[in-house]
Every structure is written in C-alpha cells, then in structure tokens.
Amino acid sequence: MLDGIGNLMMTRMQVNRDKARQWDSLICPKIKKVLEMNSKEAGECIPMKANDWHFQIMGPYDQHTVNVLQRSCSCRRWDLTGIPCRHAISAIWCRNKKPETYVHHCYRVSTYLKAYESAILPLTSQEFWPKCDLPPPLPPTYENRPRRPKKNEKEGV
After folding, report:
1. Residue 128's Cα: distance from chain center in Å?
2. Parallel, antiparallel, or unpaired for β 72-73 and 46-49?
3. 45 with 62: CB under 8 angstroms?
4. Which of 32, 9, 17 lies closest to 110, judged by CA?
5. Contact call for residues 117 and 70 (beta carbons, < 8 A)
6. Residue 47 domain-assigned?
7. DSSP characters over 104-150
C-alpha cells in the first residue's frame, strides 16, 4: 500500500511540474481566467483618482475605495483572495499598469514550480530493504471506552 501511495505521489508531482513548465504567463491559468472575468466587469466602473495610490470607484450599483499601494479594496475581495477585483482593476488601469503584476505572489507560476520542485524518489521493493534486528512493532493496546448505560425496555409496550 505504501508503495502505491509513493508511486501515485511521485507521478502526480512530475505531471504538475511538467504542466507548469508549459505555462507561458506570469500567473497560473485558473487565476488568469478569474482576472479576465474581473477585467470584463471592470469596464463598467469609473475610477476617480484621489492621489497616486487612492481611488474612488463608481460602479453601476455601488461605490468603493481602492488603495493600490496596500492592495486593498472596500469590497474586500482583493484583500481576501489576493486577486484584484473589478474595482481594483479599474484603478490599476487608471495608473496604466497591468493587473497581472498586482496578483498575490502565491498565484504565480514561479511559486507553483517551487512547490513541486522537490521530487519523491522511487523505492525498491520491500524484499530489498535492509533487515533489522529489532522486533516488529505491535499494534496499540485497545481499551473499551465507557459508554452510556443501556435503557431498560418496558415490557408490553
């Protein structure tokens, strides 16, 4: 069983590593799709610049404030996910920057590759393992736990 789990993890790590090496953008593909959806919605927003970092964003139904320096928006989506929301993207566009550069570093391809950088090395079968003089481990002792006492059933009911 341990061999099967090791083989599964070894294969999965290599597949994810190969997949990530084929990505050509700065951020992972699923995050890129979310960013594209937010970018479509950002077209409905009107940014009003307070200074270089602070913006007031007028949406079709709401109004929010964005601080690009602290990477936060009053809708809290950017704060919670690390992916710029539509209000933040509108403010970033106003600064003539790309929204991809404001995505949290945990969503970058380089971080993904670092996570799958180390490899799980293959194992030989158990018959080739070195023999040990110690006795085999015993299972843990089992004690019956106290339970609720059984109810006395009434006869004839």
Report:
1. 39
2. unpaired
3. no
4. 17
5. no
6. yes
7. -GGGBHHHHHHHT-S-PPP---GGGSPP-SSPPPPPPP--PPP-PPP
Query: How confident is the model at residue 3, as a pLDDT?
Result: 76
pTM for the whole structure: 0.75
H helix runs in the chain, sequence order: 2-22, 29-42, 77-81, 86-94, 109-115
Q: Is residue 129 part of a domain?
A: no
Q: What is the pLDDT of residues 4-28, one digit of tens each?
A: 888 899 999 999 999 999 999 999 9
Q: What domain count does the chain have?
A: 1
**For residue 40, what are the domain limits?**
27-107
Low-confidence ranges of the chain (pLDDT < 50): none
